[in-house]
Amino acid sequence: MNILVINCGSSSLKYQLIDSDSEAVLAKGLCERIGIDKSVITHTPAGKDKVVLETPMPNHTVAVKLVIDALTNKEHGVIDSLDAIHAVGHRVVHGGEKFATSVIIDDTVMKAIEECNDLAPLHNPANLIGINSCKEIMPNVPMVAVFDTAFHQTMPEKAYLYGLPYEYYEKYKVRRYGFHGTSHDYVSAHAAEIMGKTRDALKIIVCHLGNGGSISAVDHGKCVDTSMGLTPLEGIIMGTRSGDIDPAICDFICRKENLTSVEMNNILNKKSGVLGLSKVSSDFRDIEAAANQGNQLAKAALEAFYYKVAKYIGAYVAAMNGVDAIAFTAGVGENNISGRAKIAEYLGYLGTQIDPEKNNVRGEDQVISTPDSKVTLLCVPTNEELAIARQTLALVK
Ligand code: ADP
To answer: What distance in Å separates the CA atoms of residue 157 and residue 97, rounded to the nearest whole number?
Structure first.
């Protein structure tokens, strides 16, 4: 079965066509600048050079049409016709409290996703546009919604409630939801597999450290806590997001700098994190390079980042009353060898020992702790598209 995985943003659309039997990626690509000038589609068929085509994409339906054209193109296509797409899996950012699992998309589901728009005003409307565009072009192909929040719906009340007047939860559903759920689910399950164990028998902490980052506590297969909250702004220090701060800082800075809450929100999301701290970049590679050249702010930004990750790990050891495995994933988690070592330095109290040779790995499944380490440390590349394809297959076959 060929499954098209779609991740639709407000002006972009990422796709992968995955053969569910072999789990091979047949082709992948990206449409950018949808709805603005100079729209471009970059299409990469497996084993071949990428094709870049600048062509108008006034809306997402045109973008989806171009994706289908690319996939069925005589030269750089990988399938003969639209009929060879058997299902579509859509990444949907916010499922609120309505969705604890992936679902087949029908009108009721569309309405329920729309009702979550308030919770993710930048993402959910774009996800819905992507679904509608695909439905227009492939009306008879089954479609599945896979939610970023779903895996975290098992969190107990004590983990998801904020210390706010309860009426805000009652009226507006203000609570912790968590994001990157597809990754936390996939990586925790795969970490257990690598260890030759079942996830149901383990306490696992997943550190998804990318440009956006979140940490989760997965206790016997169920998420019991996660660092992102109502929105992806909460938690660890990220590329451009502040993560946890004293909420009173917002009012303080707004008064000092004469900012509106919207402007403040923008600063917290786009200008903070390691970018704001280092004044260098949001990209960890740039910051590492600057730190290695003696840039003190870059060093401080990295130290603050590692420290925050270690603190969350400590908190989740407490939440689960122990930990068997800690898995590092996403851009930084999979590739930043010295970063993993720095974080592991904080974990000696757990009887954790990183193996420097095994840790010398990027983007590969690998146990990176010594055999006698009390907690297994792992590098586990995430694969959200494959996880979406698997969940789509499970619902449509
Ligand atoms: P997102 O999906 O949230 O955009 P990614 O998971 O792709 O983010 O992670 C991007 C981050 O990973 C960037 O900050 C980048 O610097 C970092 N990264 C990628 N490769 C390396 C590397 N070799 N060493 C250190 N950091 C890396």
So the answer is: 12
**Would residue 38 be called left, alpha or beta, if left means φ above 0 and alpha means ψ between -120 and 50 degrees?**
left
Cα–Cα nearest to 346, from 379, 311, 374: 311
Three-state secondary structure of 237-277: CCCCCCCCCCCHHHHHHHHHHCCCHHHHHHHHHHCCHHHHH
- The model's pTM is 0.95
Residue 324 appears among annotated catalytic residues: no
Could you give the CA distance from residue 118 to residue 254 in angstroms, rounded to a whole number?
Answer: 24
3-state class (DSSP) for residue 344: helix
Residues of the chain with pLDDT under 50: none
Cβ–ligand 1 contact at 42 (below 6 Å): no
Q: Which helix (H) or strand (E) holds 290?
A: helix 284-292
Q: Which candidate, 391, 337, 310, 327, places its Cα nearest to that of 365?
A: 327
Query: From CA 302, how far away is CA 195, in angstroms rounded?
Result: 30
As given in the structure block, the two tokens for residue 293 are 């050249």
Catalytic residue among 148, 185, 219, 225: 148
Supply the pLDDT for residue 121. Answer: 87
Give the number of the atom of ligand 1 that is nearest the alpha carbon of residue 330.
6
